[in-house]
Amino acid sequence: MTQTNATKYGMVIDLDKCTGCGACMVACYSENNVPFKKDESNKLDSINWIRVFKISNRKPYPDTEVCYLPMPCMHCGGIGDHGHSPCVSVCPATATDYDHSTGIVSQIYTRCFGCRYCMAACPYHARKFNWWDPVWPGDMEKYLSPNVSARMRGVVEKCSFCFHRYQLAKDRAYHEGRHQEPLGENEYQPACVESCPAGAMTFGDLNNPKHAVYTLKKNPHAFRLLERLQTNPKVYYISSREWVRRAGDNYLSHEETGSIKRAAANHH
Amino acid sequence: MKATEAPLIPPGVKRCPTWQFVVWIGLAAAVLAWGVYAMILIWWKGLNQTNMNDAYGFALWIWADLAVIALGGGAFFTGFLTYIMGQKKLKAIINYAVIIGFICYSMAQLILAIDIGQPLRGWFIFWHANVHSMLTEVAFCLSCYFAVLVIEFIPLILENPKLQAKPFLHHLSHNMHEVMAVFAATGVFLSFFHQGSLGGVSGVLFGRPFAFREGIFIWPWTFFLFTWSAAACGPCFTILVTWLTEKITRKKLVKQDVLQLLAKISGWMLLTYIIAKTADTLYWAMVTAPSKGFAMMDFYSNNPLYGIWILIAEIVVCGFLPALILITKKGRENSFFMMLAVVLAVIGVCINRWVMVLQVMAVPLFTFKDWVMYTPSWQEVATTIIPVAFGIIVLSLAYRYLPVFPQEKELNPVGGSAK
Predict the structure, then answer these.
(1) What is the longest distance spanned by two Cα atoms in chain A?
(2) Assembly ipTM
(3) Domain range for residue B313?
(4) Cβ–Cβ of A113/B58 closer than 8 Å?
(5) For residue range B162-178, what is the model confidence (pLDDT) as tens digits?
(6) CB distance A188 to A166 below 8 Å
(7) What is the pLDDT of residues B365-383, one digit of tens each?
(8) Residue B417 resides in a domain
(9) Of A90, A112, A245, which to mutate for an interface test with B (greatest number of B Cβ within 10 Å)?
(10) Domain total in chain A
């Protein structure tokens, strides 16, 4: 089923505003009980649901420019937006699922048996494996969020767009007799978006004209990461700088930045 | 040989002294024990014992799985030729092909059990099966085919002289032989799908432009290429192991015309496969990869290992070259060239499986990321060697106690020098 009028949650990140402070990462760790190692210097096996990359235009001083790029799970809709995201279609045990009512890709930790096929399939490296048992220093275990289950060794985890917050918001709406109505824009916001001091991150229903993301995603400088792979991500980025937009995808040397996106738009 | 062991040895053949056999098995068992120790360490402490990481979710073990299954493909394809295509001459080698297949498939399943993060949940792949996943298809077909291999192996085990003395077991083995064509056909059907699904595992990854391939309906081209290459190179591995066994035992066990027939068929399979593989590579390099924004050389430069040499090695040196040797009568008749071709074909299919797993993981997809290289830990290496040690033990036991090679007696009349 193609997702058109249903709620489709997504994010728009304005890279011109992002300062690279990392508050989104810290908030995410805290909100989602993300485990960490004693020594986090090896980023290849550390778990983070959102990671801020520092990218550069690779020009020598004084033309050097840098940009900070936060990268959560893209919650891909897959080719044709049918919900066959790269990871969902490959999971042999149906441990990851595409929710057609929200567009959110979930991970069922207790069903995952750790084959890591989803990690091999995800071009964004959004999926992280629990190589170790989670160990919480001191009495930190007492401060874990009761709304998010802690994961065990040997399973894959990833950003859920703070789905538990969506569930809490839905519960509240139901309690208030609003369960037939869509949630308001501010009723459901992920922790990373709330924590961003620069206001670089915006979250909402990409299909709802009343939500800011609906308009923001149409910004002429908006783009998505690796769009040419047809993963159909729900995270959009905005940058006024051409080199940043070009860094977000792969182009042959003769191709102009955004040329494929324009060709696709004309085709539609 | 000890008198107590003599009744277990098939009549009319000569075997080495018991002490020599025990030393030989002991050496293999020592290597196996090393692997088992690493395996227990991994099950106890988890996959942090490996050098895998979030960039290398798939690594040495998945390569080993794909490689042993391709090499074990000699069982299904030789069975197909013997029982379905009526190449009765190949009955001289089919037993060995089945045992090699049994070893490869049992070990592939063991490696998968080591490779998963939650081994106790391994059965979820059947219970919560996702029909869209190529890995699900692999799990079902692989398990079913392994059952077929066990059924094919049982009548041979029952041919041990001690077991043959029991009337029930004697009749059971006879009757199982009678219906073996049915199981061979089942094996071919199942193998076609799981070998193909293993190709599909990487071919469907539309987020990984190095692996992704177009195809027909739900099957990417790699689905067909993997089945084809397993059918081509699996028999080469059977020939190689037979040749090694002959060297170790210092006996001729299979007539040369049988090996040459299998080599000839392998050669034609390899040639047609490598032509298809070349066409697939060209289409990928000129159409698929550019449509994703990649030039072909992006996948073969700026890293310490994966140069264009690996593609040339796979397609030319280990593809066209052995194929051309094997389809030529003179090439097959020269034992050096025939074995060279067989070894190259085996290396070629292993390179193919390597790049379709490891290179896929290594390639950077973002312009701001670099290649990620990987070196396996000793635990990964030790567990990957388990199939070799286990294989040596099973083959040695089978050769010693079972009439594996029907031509052995004829080729080695008792009284000649033999071990």
Answers:
(1) 60
(2) 0.94
(3) 6-404
(4) no
(5) 999 999 999 999 999 88
(6) yes
(7) 999 999 999 999 999 999 9
(8) no
(9) A90
(10) 1
